[in-house]
Amino acid sequence: SDYSTPRCYLNHRGCYVVIAVSVFNVLRSLSAASHGLTDEQKEFQKVAFDFAANEMAPHMAEWDQKEIFPVETMRKAAQLGFGGIYVQPDVGGSGLSRLDTSIIFEALSTGCVSTTAYISIHNMCAWMIDSYGNKEQREKFCPDLCSMEKFASYCLTEPGSGSDAASLLTSAQRKGDHYVLNGSKAFISGGGDTDVYVVMCRTGGKGPKGISCLVVEKGTPGLSFGKKEKKVGWNSQPTRAVIFEDCAVPVANRLGEEGQGFNFAMKGLNGGRINIASCSLGAAHASVQLARDHLLVRKQFGETLSNNQFLQFKLAEMATKLVASRLLIREAAQALQEDRPDAVAICSMAKLFATDECFNICNQALQMHGGYGYLKDYAVQQFVRDIRVHQILEGTNEVMRMIISRNLLSES
Ligand SMILES: Cc1cc2nc3c(=O)[nH]c(=O)nc-3n(C[C@H](O)[C@H](O)[C@H](O)COP(=O)(O)OP(=O)(O)OC[C@H]3O[C@@H](n4cnc5c(N)ncnc54)[C@H](O)[C@@H]3O)c2cc1C
Fold first, then answer.
1. 268 in ligand 1 pocket by Cβ < 6 Å?
2. C-beta of residue 284 within 8 angstroms of C-beta of residue 207
3. pLDDT band at residue 175, thresholds of 50, 70 and 90?
4. Is the CB–ligand 1 distance for residue 117 below 6 Å?
5. Domains and CATH numbers, the chain
6. PROSITE patterns per the record (predicted)?
């Protein structure tokens, strides 16, 4: 079940010839993923591609099939600075830009989307504590998160509040120097296996202004977890409900002031949306390469599929949409970095466009593999399964349309 090991199916699968080993090694040349980057960016892009090829791709199928959360591999990634990519260096972060971050997540996800997507959520949590925490909170939590000695989860969604996140009900009642939490969070990535929970909860009245953000540590009495969800993809990371029953959390663990939590959650997601779109991009990038290699070797009707103009045109469209997605994601990353007024809308556009188009690219790549694409021996099906959820989480693509149109219609 190792996609990147050379294997030959020639004998028992007719004329199929193996695409072999190094698909992941030649990926970096595809469709100019490094065009326009600085020398420094090209350097860490290479580091991330190499890490994806050597440390992730060989295990991607096994992590999926056995549902392994690859803690040690992620800690190795953290040694390269990928545990707190856009966290400030004084607390152990790499201090890189949003564009740098996108480049890294695109490259890493060619080796395993699911693991990279978890790393991106972890980075988002670390950034929230770095950005909105006080000195003590930053010093307490960020170094261990940046080294991935500890892992983080982002807790916004509840059973009754998904797209309408501001309607969340988990309550935090202040009792002296503690808040007492009651309620539950649904679909929490890493839930149960992680150490630090960044929890949006209600300390005030209805709506977004009644929401605060607390950091809850694993082991706190009253904190428990639901069963591990069985998922279509994203299997190298656990997803569980997170449950609070009279869970006492120190007031000292509140980020910012009461009522600021929803704003922090949305600011985190702006970057999160670029990151998750970048993970789709990496999957599409890998899938175009896999499809190309398959067309070049698979023969039907007496010639390779690469001689068929319909498939040539399809491949051309896939590569075009890949590059268009990349351009939009990088534009969004730049807009967020510069804190441009249109940044929120552009981040939403990038998430909407890239996660939809990249899913279509991966699905088309699967189609080009014919029946083989439907077999778990071939990586393309895992890319399809893993990125499907990017159209749903961190704000569904319908919610992205709401944000974009709200921005357009509110302009004078
Ligand atoms: C694998 C996985 C991991 C996740 N990880 C996390 C995590 O780590 N942390 C976290 O907080 N959450 C997480 N989520 C939750 C995710 O963010 C939500 O599932 C998502 O926001 C959608 O919410 P919902 O599932 O309740 O769908 P609903 O909000 O019930 O939406 C159902 C459908 O209706 C559409 N819809 C809803 N309202 C409108 C409207 N007004 N107009 C048009 N269409 C609308 C939606 O777009 C969607 O298609 C995860 C989800 C999954 C599947």
1. no
2. no
3. very high
4. no
5. 23-146 (1.10.540.10), 152-261 (2.40.110.10), 265-410 (1.20.140.10)
6. ACYL_COA_DH_1
